[in-house]
Amino acid sequence: MARRSDHSREEIREMALGAALTILEEEGAKGLSARKVASAIGYTVGTLYLVFKNQQEMVLHLNALTLDDMNEWLESRSAHCSAPRDCLQTLAEAYIDYAMEKGARWNLLFDSVVAEHEVLPEWYQQRLGRLFGRVERMLAPLKSEHEAIEIERAARVLWASVHGICTLKIRHRMDLAGGQSTAQMAQMLIDNFLRGFAESKK
After folding, report:
1. For 79-108, b where at least 16 C-beta lie within 10 A, e where not — what string?
2. In whole angstroms, what is the distance from residue 131 CA to residue 129 CA?
3. Among 174, 154, 144, 177, residue whose Cα is nearest residue 88
4. Were both Cys, which of 61, 87, 93, 190 would link to 81 (CB 3.0–4.6 Å)?
């Protein structure tokens, strides 16, 4: 194993994030701590905080990796669809599948607390933008009269609505869905949303 002095700051960052991901997947968010991450890579917590400002920043970088992973997941499952409505349905189901398959990572995305006054860094917002952009590109051809800002907002509303369905599934509250599956709920949501979206500028 390389001596500590052989690792650059960037290498320590990558090692720390890799260890943090392993801990997260094995123990969940409650098991994730700077001390455990530092111990796993053979460094002190003090050294870890030379790379990350604090544990919150480390978690933010870890969540950024999850956003990248989710983006690849969605891409692999929607690459061959063409009709906007079908693509939206595919994305919705793929998003729910991701949350079920990689629950620890998905939960950390939304359990991480960001102070109300704190602005997410640009590099993180770009990752979010790539995810929302998938929905925006599918909505854009459906109503050319809509301005870009309206499409952007609509994409986020639709995503948030699918997220709500996903949360019911993750939290084991599908009894509130009246016997419907997540796919059926997503289909009804998307059909009604697109109908309203198309009508809103007539």
Report:
1. eeeeebeebbbbbbbbbbbbbeebebbbeb
2. 5
3. 154
4. 87
* Beta carbons of 64 and 124 less than 8 angstroms apart: yes
CB 190, CB 81: distance < 8 Å: no
CA distance 60 to 121: 10
Give the residues of the chain that fall short of pLDDT 50: 1-3
C-beta neighbour count of 130 within 10 angstroms = 15
Structure tokens at 174: 């599908």
Q: How far apart are CA 22 and CA 62, in angstroms?
A: 11
The pair of three-digit structure tokens given for residue 65, joined into one six-digit string? 């990796």
Tell me, what's the pLDDT at 147?
Answer: 83
Instruction: Transcribe 14-35 into DSSP letters.
Output: HHHHHHHHHHHHHH-GGG--HH
Residue 200: predicted pLDDT: 73
Is the entire prediction scored with pTM above 0.85? yes
Q: Give Cβ neighbours of residue 154 (< 8 Å, ≥ 6 apart).
A: 139, 146, 197
